[in-house]
What we know:
Layout: E1 3-8, H1 12-21, E2 27-34, E3 50-52, E4 65-68, H2 76-84, E5 88-91, H3 99-112, E6 117-118, H4 127-138, E7 142-147, E8 152-157, H5 164-172
Parallel strand pairs: 1-2, 1-4, 2-3, 4-5, 5-6
Antiparallel strand pairs: 7-8
Helix pairs in contact: 2-3
Amino acid sequence: MAIRIGIIGYGNLARGVESEISRCPDMELKGVFTRRDPASLKIRTAGVPVYSVNDLKDKTADFDVMINCGGSATDLPVTTPEYAALYNVIDSFDTHAKIPEHFKAVDEASKSANKVSLISAGWDPGMFSLQRLYSNCILPEVTTTHSGARAFHRVTPMLSEESPALRTASSTLSPYPRLSMP
């Protein structure tokens, strides 16, 4: 039995989610919800209905998970807690300073409805945060810089020949003599 997925919103993020759902044999896109006129929205997946967001309260029995693809600035802080009271929800909230506040609101709504929610599941926070964590565990002398509104990240190694991380890695992981650093 496939997991019945709904998508809320239909911008770039939602189209990417739709594309990935089509690649997962254990998931089925059952509907897209929009603030636009549903009749005006043409989605890529044939045969999948488009509904008004006003229909969300009436469709709870038809979906296992809703993926909320709204914007972090104004949509998700309001809509994710609202929908978490109705569905198991996933969002990509990425306003770092407000994540604790968002978590609290979504957690309360989810718990009160006996639902599960996953927030901030995206690139950053999300996958990039995990990659940063793993990198920092393996290479403790690495700095990560964040520059610009487009969340461009650059990892700059700070290894020298005297680096404890480099000495440890080259003496314990390699059976060959340590090469000198240029």
